[in-house]
């Protein structure tokens, strides 16, 4: 699969309307896509094993989307083969009072993956330029001093986030950013399914329907995010999300090729270490 069409190029102004949520790259066979996803899952498991053994890079994968775009199920399917010890998922909710007492990147810093690990952010510090922008009253809780809370606050946050991500990347934390692009119509269908099917009721919250009323404001905020924070070192990927099987396949494919591009390898064994291993072998073999 070619990934170019999903990447938001750096220093370019895109229009979200040009990205089709129902795109499937010409694929129509869901079963074939699922089989391909299984291969992706296996390759991801293999790369993760080497990432962990090499203990040098970390991979941060973050997901942003409107409700019901499929963040949870994409994470579940794409990561289904990886060793849980090498992977951590962190879901960012409304900040607690302790978190609000700190700068807005504080809680993200604490949740960053260790070397050798894959860290997943289910929502992220980008909420600080999305939900907080759509609902300016949330900014009031942050008690920012006036000079930090001017009209330029969003541009400042974009700049701060770019610097933060550059810092991460320059320190071996690879940053992948996915926007799951669901259409407003498809969201409605999924909400109705959550209401109509008892085993899905728990997934629906009244606040999700309320956020839907701000759809256009969210799309504008997202567009501004992509146009200001898609960089050469930490690009945004806009993933079509009206067909979940395609979303999973595309995300899996991009993660796998990102890991591949790192040319990971198992640590090589030094002469001294090799001698140690042979010595241990001798001892074991000489046991009764
Ligand atoms: P799901 O509904 O699938 O469990 P979710 O990510 O929608 O997953 P919720 O608990 O429903 O989880 O919603 C989390 C809420 O927290 C979202 O409405 C999101 O906008 C909000 N949130 C996340 N980060 C921030 C932030 N920095 N400031 C304000 N609100 C935030
Ligand atoms: Mg929710």
From TrEMBL:
<feature type="domain" description="Polyphosphate kinase-2-related">
    <location>
        <begin position="29"/>
        <end position="261"/>
    </location>
</feature>
<dbReference type="InterPro" id="IPR016898">
    <property type="entry name" value="Polyphosphate_phosphotransfera"/>
</dbReference>
<keyword id="KW-0418">Kinase</keyword>
<dbReference type="GO" id="GO:0006797">
    <property type="term" value="P:polyphosphate metabolic process"/>
</dbReference>
<dbReference type="InterPro" id="IPR027417">
    <property type="entry name" value="P-loop_NTPase"/>
</dbReference>
<dbReference type="GO" id="GO:0008976">
    <property type="term" value="F:polyphosphate kinase activity"/>
</dbReference>
<protein>
    <submittedName>
        <fullName>Polyphosphate kinase 2 family protein</fullName>
    </submittedName>
</protein>
<dbReference type="Pfam" id="PF03976">
    <property type="entry name" value="PPK2"/>
</dbReference>
<dbReference type="InterPro" id="IPR022488">
    <property type="entry name" value="PPK2-related"/>
</dbReference>
<keyword id="KW-0808">Transferase</keyword>
<dbReference type="InterPro" id="IPR022300">
    <property type="entry name" value="PPK2-rel_1"/>
</dbReference>
